[in-house]
């Protein structure tokens, strides 16, 4: 019973870390990386399809993304989807491929992206603390129902606290890496 609650909490905390990682990938740095375009969907025969399922995306010279669609008629649709996205990118096509230059970041935009990363990290910390609260509440309920002893409840809460501390440390480490990445370019 206790182990199931701890395992569930650990799984949910790992999902929070994964969500933070995805959020950090969407925060652009000055370097080109194909994951920047992960959020872009293109209308493909009437259904919205992720860009990475419709084209090959490569990095050229560290500052440009080259998109090679598998079907040439998609070039216009892909270009429109990139322009409509909130990424601030200006694609250009040569008929066969689309070139997306990554604009250099100004000091002001770096600070904005760092602020955005900090907010994402704080949201992840809040999610982890909410998971801890839920687990501790479950332990209290079990103790009230006399399904576990008070000592078992305390040990379980200590386990959840250690798990929470470990996850929050991982969130902080991920934030530090992202902040250094944003400010170093």
Textual characterization of the structure:
This protein has helices at residues 2-26, 75-84, 107-144, 150-184, and strands at 41-44, 47-50, 55-60, 64-69, 92-93, 98-101. By secondary structure, it is an alpha+beta fold. α1 (2-26) runs antiparallel to α3 and α1 runs parallel beside α4.
Summarize the structure.
With 185 residues, this protein is an alpha+beta fold. The protein has 4 helices and 6 strands; from the N terminus they run αββββαββαα. It has a 4-stranded antiparallel beta sheet, with helices on one face. Strands 1-2 form a two-stranded antiparallel ribbon.
- Share of helix among residues? 55-70%
Q: For the largest beta sheet, what order do the strands appear in spatially?
A: 3-4-6-5
Q: State which percent range the strand residues make up.
A: 5-15%
Distance between the termini: 49 Å
Summarize the helix and strand pattern as letters. HEEEEHEEHH
Radius of gyration: 22 Å
Oligomer: single chain
Largest sheet: 4 strands, antiparallel
Instruction: Outline the low-pLDDT stretches.
Output: none
Q: Would you tell me the overall average pLDDT?
A: 87
Classification by helices and strands: alpha+beta
Task: Characterize the overall form.
Answer: elongated
Number of helices: 4
Count of beta strands: 6
């Amino acid at each position: 019973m206790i182990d199931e609650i701890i395992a569930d909490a650990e799984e949910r905390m790992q999902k929070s870390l994964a969500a933070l990682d995805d959020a950090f990938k969407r925060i652009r740095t000055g370097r080109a990386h194909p994951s920047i375009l992960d959020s872009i969907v293109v209308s493909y025969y009437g259904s919205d399809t992720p860009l990475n399922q419709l084209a090959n995306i490569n990095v050229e010279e560290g500052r440009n993304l080259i998109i090679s669609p598998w079907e040439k008629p998609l070039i216009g649709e892909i270009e429109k989807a990139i322009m409509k996205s909130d990424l601030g990118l200006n694609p250009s096509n040569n008929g066969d491929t689309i070139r997306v230059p990554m604009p250099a970041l100004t000091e002001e935009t770096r600070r904005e992206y760092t602020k955005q990363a900090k907010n994402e990290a704080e949201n992840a910390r809040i999610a982890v603390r909410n998971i801890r609260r839920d687990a501790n509440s479950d332990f209290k309920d079990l103790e009230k129902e006399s399904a576990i002893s008070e000592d078992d409840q305390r040990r379980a809460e200590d386990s959840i606290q250690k798990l929470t501390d470990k996850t929050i440390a991982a969130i902080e480490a991920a934030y530090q890496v992202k902040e250094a990445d944003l400010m170093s370019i």
